[in-house]
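Researcher: Going back to the complex we discussed earlier. I've cleaned up the inputs and rechecked each line, so this should be the final set. Can you rerun the prediction on the complete assembly and write out the structure?
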Amino acid sequence: MSTISRDLNVYGFSTEIRVRLSETDAVGIVFFGSFAVYFDVGRMDYLAHLGLHRFDGAIRDLIPGAVVAQEGCFHSPARYNDILVMHTRIAHIGNSSYTFHFMATNKRSRELVATGKLTLCWLDEDFSPVRIPEAFREVVRKFEGPLLTTA
Amino acid sequence: MSTISRDLNVYGFSTEIRVRLSETDAVGIVFFGSFAVYFDVGRMDYLAHLGLHRFDGAIRDLIPGAVVAQEGCFHSPARYNDILVMHTRIAHIGNSSYTFHFMATNKRSRELVATGKLTLCWLDEDFSPVRIPEAFREVVRKFEGPLLTTA
Amino acid sequence: MSTISRDLNVYGFSTEIRVRLSETDAVGIVFFGSFAVYFDVGRMDYLAHLGLHRFDGAIRDLIPGAVVAQEGCFHSPARYNDILVMHTRIAHIGNSSYTFHFMATNKRSRELVATGKLTLCWLDEDFSPVRIPEAFREVVRKFEGPLLTTA
Amino acid sequence: MSTISRDLNVYGFSTEIRVRLSETDAVGIVFFGSFAVYFDVGRMDYLAHLGLHRFDGAIRDLIPGAVVAQEGCFHSPARYNDILVMHTRIAHIGNSSYTFHFMATNKRSRELVATGKLTLCWLDEDFSPVRIPEAFREVVRKFEGPLLTTA
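Model: Rerun complete. Updated structure for the full complex:
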């Protein structure tokens, strides 16, 4: 799978996250694990923006996309009350899995703060991978355009 | 309801919690909200100790005890890697609700760190309060002895 | 100290919080401890709104307001992706401590979700309580009007 | 850097983590982001076990090891009250960075739950990378033996 782009033009969606005190740690900066939550906010807001969270809605009964892999790189520290712009895209749709890419920048300083990936797998009720529905693919394909790789 | 006792003799159960980096904040000490989690660990470990977590087991289907109120007082700061001793008791069983009391001390310095309360309400599947089962009452009564107040 | 008002007119400030997946638990609703974080977001946003977060700024060196007590009551469950309106006020300023009141409502259903309190104590560098500065009092007094009680 | 081994013999250290309710989410399983915290507990306990947390002690003044990259793969779901065995090793020490590998198994079922990596960079007070001290290298080299790769 491709590396995470740092070209803003590649990201069609962004959402803002203000750092909470609870997300920092005694080192004085944002705890690295808080970025897993931030990436997830990017994911949730992206899906809602495209009207795709109905696919994500039946939290309990059906699990349409479970996170199977996650990566983060932390380039510069973020601090209490910083505003992070979480640039979000779906970079790849495979057969039963798809991958988000994230680039978080500091809204005031414009510095690169973090990059990351989330890979989700579409599951049926028995937790077996199934092919991602055509309707989901179609919406993402339209939004992401030719940069989206598929399989 | 009675105030939270600081007499160790009153607490029949304790459990240890080591402070994780993620639970501290940029002030350099444990974030006050982390104590809500610590109190919940005290609750979970107490119930397991008395074999009562079967009542707490069917997480999804039946909700036997939902937290309806929580209190915390923070007496001295806790820090990364500190070991907290969470002294835990059930102080009161009412008709459909019951109340935990907590006193957290620092294992090394023996200082009082925090006190707290959790009140839980026994609910049926429609989220309506129901009387706490006799079996639960009996086990708690035996363990807590005459200090337990009931209604 | 007074009870927490449920009259919207009493609250001069509100801020919106969308429930993240990480803030829910296996019961299927928001974990009660997440409200400690939500109350803290209310506090932070209130202080920033009044330009008072410079008092809150020197996170490490001076601790102008440490949380010494916290309360929460949970009236109805909140769920993933719900939007909570966190109505926030300072209800009382004492000599060295002051108290926030919170009322969280569900933006879509308008249901009451939770009420809460945070009491903060103004500390000097040796963690000793000091009188809250006049400048802070003045700004809060102007904003809260005659409903603010003082000591 | 090498892939994460699933051979238990490779891991010289393990620590147990019981899943807290706050670490699960509305899907009914552990939130993927909680594993960032679990990996950090593995790291902290490993360093304490080798007496290396003095290097990690001066939380505020000196930052000897900041997390610069993190990876996780989630193989099977973990649930409330599960006990995870976090097998932990340092797999690689470079010039200024070093890498932990983790393998989390379910203590009761022995199933593989997650694998992960944390890469830390040794920094001086100006946040510039510096060579990892010989004393730290020596202790890790002794403990990890010939499996440790260095640069």
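Model: Worth noting: Chain C has two helices and six strands.
Researcher: Good, that matches what I expected from the previous run.
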